[in-house]
Amino acid sequence: MITTPTAGRVTATQAAALTGRGIATVSLAARSGDLPFVVVNGVRRFAPADLHAWQAAKHAPPTGPLLSFSDAWRLIGYANRSSITRAIEAGRLTVVLDEHGRPRLNRADVEALAEQRRARKAKRA
Hints:
Oligomer: single chain
Structural class: alpha+beta
Number of domains: 2
Protein name: Helix-turn-helix domain-containing protein
Distance between the termini: 57 Å
InterPro entries: DNA-bd_dom_put_sf
Strand order of the largest sheet: 3-5-4
CATH topology of the largest domain: Multidrug-efflux Transporter Regulator, Chain: A, Domain 2
CATH architecture of the largest domain: Orthogonal Bundle
CATH class of the largest domain: Mainly Alpha
Order of helices and strands: HHEEHEHHEEH
Shape: elongated
């Protein structure tokens, strides 16, 4: 059996549905080189394995000593980013600026807060 380049590959619309992302997000990832694709008759086609790898990489926490507010609340397990803001206002987290002047949180502080949260949850259980 001869396979074509489109065999098993999906369009951007299908890729967006499979990953739970928007079509624009999938297209941007393709244009920026983060998501491999082939063009068949002017249409981008994505391999499901590439989509799964891309999605896993997007959900992986970033490395390095500083975290964005969004990465911090995901790491801690809070419901939303406003919980991070309240932790900052209460003095449990300290904001530092990265090399581009963006507000960030120290990973060590966030991990310590996450451990405290896990301990409180374990104590209640």
